[in-house]
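Input record (Table S2, row 669):
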Amino acid sequence: MKRSEAKAHIEKLRLEIEEHNHRYYVLNEPAISDFEYDILLNELETLEKKFPEFIVDGSPTHKVGSDITKEFTQYEHRYPMLSLGNTYNEEEVREFDSRVRKATSEPIEYVCELKFDGASISILYKNGELFRALTRGDGTRGDDVTMNVKTIKSIPKKITDKRIPSEFVIRGEIVMPRAVFNKLNDERSEEDIIPFANPRNAAAGTLKLLDPRIVASRSLDCLVYYLLSEEIPHDNHFENLKEASEWGFKVPDSIRLCRSIEDIFQFISHWDSERKNLPYDTDGVVIKVNSLTLQKELGDTAKSPRWAIAYKFKAEQATTRLLSVTFQVGRTGNVTPVANLEPVLLSGSTVKRATLHNADQIALLDLHLNDMVYVEKGGEIIPKIVGVDHSFRNENSKRIEFISHCPECGTSLVKNDGEANHYCPNYLHCPPQIKGRIEHFISRKAMDIDGLGEETIDLLFSKKLIRNFSDLYDLTLEQLVPLERLGEKSASNILKSIRKSVDTPYPRVLYALGIRHVGETVAKIICKEFRSIDDLINSDPERLISVSEIGPKIAASIVAYFTDNENLEIIRRLKLIGIRFSDENRPILTGNSLDGKVIVISGLFLEHSRDEYKDIIERNGGKNSSSISGNTSFVLAGEKMGQSKKEKAQKFGVPLINEMEFLKIIGED
Ligand code: IVH
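Output record (2-(butylsulfanyl)adenosine complex):
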């Protein structure tokens, strides 16, 4: 590779890896498997070694990915939180062993541990009390998630054992048992919430929730693997972990002392097959030098200790033939390539299709028709293609090209700079986009119209009974009853549900419009700032961007939406029907659901102002109080609730009720 090419490739890899870091650590929505990620990182490392002049400060090869989010306060780690060097092959484990042996003539002891797949946590104890729990963050500073960590049963809040150091840090992995994960995802699917891709994402996402009561309900567990202190009890890792287990921490029974490389490989091969019987996901084995003195001698690199290495298990893979690639168009016009495969058995189920993400992914794999491809499940719900077996490629096989035109409406596809996806810009007339918008409009969190599934929408659309969602309100019983599979009863229920949706609150109506980048939360924020849709229609990008949480991308999308006459016409029709496009005249509910309750309000709210909430509490029989005490029934907890209030509530055992739960209690959800 030429120097100039290497420079460009290094920069591209860096950006790509940083994007994946953000998706993995902050959004908890990885787009590629760990294996694919490691390949990218490895490629960057190799290139940086070959062309050291292009190494920059802060390259992802030199720092750990950051999970820092703005919702939490950050604190500095007492000891930096490094990551681990990892490998997928035995040779590199042997090389690690040789490097370690070079540092000493003494016999070496290793501790082999399972590498549990969750979110790392570092907990500081002072005089036996859990003082503060931090996520890994960027390795130097982490997010303070103490309130959430305190809800985890396997983490002691107070330790009475007299042998403990006055201050120590314990580190471990917060994990979600697979059984809990499956149950949680079933519930989410039922409630139309996007399920978590795997238990790791569910654990990491839960740890960053703002309501500790929901965290408590998710049965997280913590498996500890590292003890740090100025007064460390033993000079070896194994005994320190055993000691921590006596203090009440959960140390996995699987940890073993190994004295030879053969012992290590035996541990690895045993757990590679046995791990499926464990309640938690594991993605490898960590091999650590046992002696702390030797650990110190070996030291650390900028990113990871030289005294430990992770051997990663390969995710379960299968090989099969690529039959074709089809391109799907989603509600927002995004085009996703899907691989159609010769059916193959993978981790107990038959796989016929796999996602290919986007054009870059197809190019990266250099995919050809009839290729033999490696398919991996790796915890994700939709299997993906992670590689191609080139030895089976036929010389004449056709390269897979990304399409240039929409497969549904023929419009030329568009790709914005900096975005990986192609999309169809024919917003108004591309059928899957129109149908997708109608499906979104009727969904539970939007207008919540029952009885109209995807198939019925398809039918109504193909029979030209609806062209956009405002047409739903013109449907009649005579039109619905003759439709296939719809009887009079279902048809009349659908109409009732459509009529009922007229009362949907303004923020949900705004969300239902399906404006690109305006999700549920953004819709709520907008409604607080712009009390009516006319205010919003008349605003300009500068005014929109002045609202925190609204960036240029969202602002541009809102402005573009309201510049379109067809959208304005839909809104005009919805207004005539009586759909709410403002928060004014919103009736404040009165009742007795809060009779006798003493309530403290704290934090910021989306649906009503604090004063409105005070009023609502009184109108529903409750009493407002400004400070938390043993008498407080609950705290109405908004976002950014103060830490001291949280601690006080915890001390008095006062529950925190979030805004949505509160609105449910008073019947305004
Ligand atoms: S040792 C300096 N041991 O793997 C020591 N890490 O990059 C560093 N992990 O997210 C960590 N199980 O949370 C260690 N038995 C184990 C582990 C483990 C899981 C995670 C850790 C971090 C990643 C290492």
